[in-house]
Amino acid sequence: MLKGVWGINIAVKDLDEAVEKYEKLLGVKPSISSDPNRAAFAGFTTAQFIFQNFVINLMTSKETNNPVGKFLEKRGEGVILMSIQSDDIDNDVAKMKADGLKFLWDENMPGGYGNVNFIPAKNMNGVQWEILDPISEWIEMKEKGSK
User: Fold this and answer.
1) DSSP 135
2) Which residues of 76-85 are buried (b: 16+ CB within 10 A; e: fewer)?
3) What per-residue confidence (pLDDT) applies to 142?
4) Residue 97, pLDDT score
């Protein structure tokens, strides 16, 4: 069952500048990582803010051969992805496919945050959607970071 919005990912050109701005605005410090195990694709750096039980990921890439780099090159800065939390991704994705939505992969894939699949931006009015069934560690971290 879809549980709600997990968070958003925003592509930025200058991560340090964006982190400074968001840190001042939100009043929380981010977790910064280039670990490919924390993302579906390698080659970019994220700054993750947990604010009011909502995840805001600022993402940048110096390379243009990954989704973040391609997005920055083609569209500039902005919302690249919205994450929707599921507690039964196989069933949820099957229902969405039956309703005609197209997904990036035929099968849901394990990732650093949990099992995931993506609805390409061209199918969702210009914003890619991530359907995420997060591992318990990430649910606990999100809840802890919100307090």
Assistant:
1) -
2) eeeebbbbbb
3) 78
4) 97
Q: What is the domain range of residue 63?
A: 2-145
**Three-state SS across 79-126?**
EEEEEEEECCHHHHHHHHHHCCCCCCCCCCEECCCEEEEEECHHHCCC
Domain count, the chain: 1
Residue 85 — very low, low, confident or very high, per pLDDT cuts 50/70/90? very high
**Tokens at 69, concatenated:** 């780099």
Q: Given a cut of 80, is residue 92 above it in pLDDT?
A: yes
What CATH number is attached to the domain comprising 113? 3.10.180.10
DSSP 8-state symbol, 13: S
Q: Which of 75, 72, 56, 52 lies closest to 64 in space, CA to CA? A: 72
Q: Which residue has the higher pLDDT, 118 or 41?
A: 118
